[in-house]
């Protein structure tokens, strides 16, 4: 087992990512890739857990492979991970312990945006769905709800075993969304998942002051990542003349703020748009607005949902023998 640096375990409650170790799921692309890249640039080693790596992630892994670098230089390691499999989630922590001696930051960031293959409007057993009618679960909820909850359980267990305290703090960072504050007929499972994540984050807020385990989250708006750009069925929600993209780098900066800033304590949800960031209040929040938060064609795209519902036998498909 690799030795931990003394400065990490003896660190005060003023938290810096430098010299720390993070696990980031979904870091093969998008927001989580940008977050992993920023952590590494700031001196934090990263376990990248994903099904596969896009070219930019492979390049990042090579850059921080540890070959030819000195002691104390951050490293990145890749663990092929299907976040729906709990044993594979446990393996991420085992790799972090073997490679780095433990973990300080855990971000279960992997997520999907209601693809047709696991979607409320394409029920299990229908032609486009890969959710089996006999499976008793939806893959989209396994990824967007169960995976971050189970990963957080595993993280807290490791943190407690490592002697976490307000003077030796640890961090869990959840990816929520502006979808956790709004409604969208097109993607009800995604919206339900992000509402769930907001409640989960806030419910664990009290761990920070008592145990030094800060669980908080970011709520990105319309971010230019493959989650949008490689899904033409989602791009129709946007009007290029009216709607603006925020960048994954903006979200990554906000994510590091959630880890390091003393004023963003446990239970905080930090919303990120195009050139704007704000704290989401638990009660009487005005909701997302402005650049990077609008999808002007959302209402008109509801017609496709009603067309699906008008098809004969919607939702009545049965498992094939």
Total discrete domains: 1
Strand content: 5-15%
How does the overall form come out from the CA principal axes? globular
On the 0 to 100 scale, the average pLDDT is 90
* Poorly predicted ranges: 1-12
Q: Tell me how many strands there are.
A: 8
Separation of the first and last Cα atoms: 50 Å
Q: What is the name of the CATH superfamily?
A: NAD(P)-binding Rossmann-like Domain
CATH architecture: 3-Layer(aba) Sandwich
GO molecular function: oxidoreductase activity
Family: Belongs to the short-chain dehydrogenases/reductases (SDR) family.
Pfam families: adh_short
Keywords: NADP, Oxidoreductase
Written overview of the protein:
One of its GO terms (cellular component) is cytoplasm. Pfam families: adh_short. InterPro entries: NAD(P)-bd_dom_sf, Sc_DH/Rdtase_CS, SDR_fam. This is NAD(P)-binding protein. GO terms for molecular function: oxidoreductase activity. Strands 3-2-1-4-5-6-7-8 form an 8-stranded mixed beta sheet, with helices on both faces. It has 321 residues and is of the alpha/beta class. Strand 7 (269-272) and strand 8 (277-279) form a beta hairpin. The chain starts with 5 loop residues before the first helix and ends in a 12-residue tail after the last helix. It is built from 11 helices and 8 strands. It is 35% helix and 12% strand. It has a single domain (9-309), classed as Rossmann fold, CATH 3.40.50.
């Amino acid at each position: 087992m690799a030795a931990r640096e003394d400065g990490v375990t003896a660190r005060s409650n003023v938290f810096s990512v430098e010299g720390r170790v993070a696990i980031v799921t979904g870091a093969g692309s998008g927001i989580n890739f940008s977050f992993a890249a920023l952590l590494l640039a700031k001196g934090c080693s990263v376990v990248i857990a994903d099904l596969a790596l896009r070219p930019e992630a492979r390049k990042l892994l090579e850059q921080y492979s540890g070959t030819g670098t000195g002691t104390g230089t951050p490293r990145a390691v890749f663990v092929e991970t299907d976040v729906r499999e709990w044993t594979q989630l446990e393996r991420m922590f085992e790799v972090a312990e073997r490679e780095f001696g433990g973990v300080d930051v855990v971000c279960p960031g992997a997520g999907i945006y209601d693809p047709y293959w696991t979607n409320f409007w394409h029920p299990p057993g229908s032609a486009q769905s890969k959710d089996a009618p006999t499976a008793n679960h939806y893959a989209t909820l396994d990824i967007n709800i169960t995976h971050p909850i189970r990963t957080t359980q595993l993280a807290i267990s490791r943190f407690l075993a490592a002697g976490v305290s307000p003077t030796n703090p640890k961090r869990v960072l959840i990816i929520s969304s502006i979808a956790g504050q709004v409604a969208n007929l097109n993607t009800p499972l995604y919206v339900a998942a992000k509402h769930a994540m907001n409640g989960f984050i806030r419910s664990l807020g009290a761990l920070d002051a008592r145990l030094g385990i800060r669980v908080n989250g970011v709520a990105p708006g319309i971010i230019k990542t493959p989650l949008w750009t490689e899904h033409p069925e989602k791009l129709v929600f946007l009007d290029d003349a009216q709607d603006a993209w925020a960048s994954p780098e903006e979200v990554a900066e906000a994510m590091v703020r959630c880890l390091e800033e003393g004023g963003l304590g446990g239970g905080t949800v930090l919303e990120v748009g195009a050139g704007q960031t704000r704290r989401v209040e638990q009660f009487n929040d005005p909701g997302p607005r402005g650049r990077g938060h609008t999808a002007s064609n959302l209402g008109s795209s509801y017609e496709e949902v009603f067309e699906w519902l008008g098809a004969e036998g919607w939702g009545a498909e049965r498992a094939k023998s």
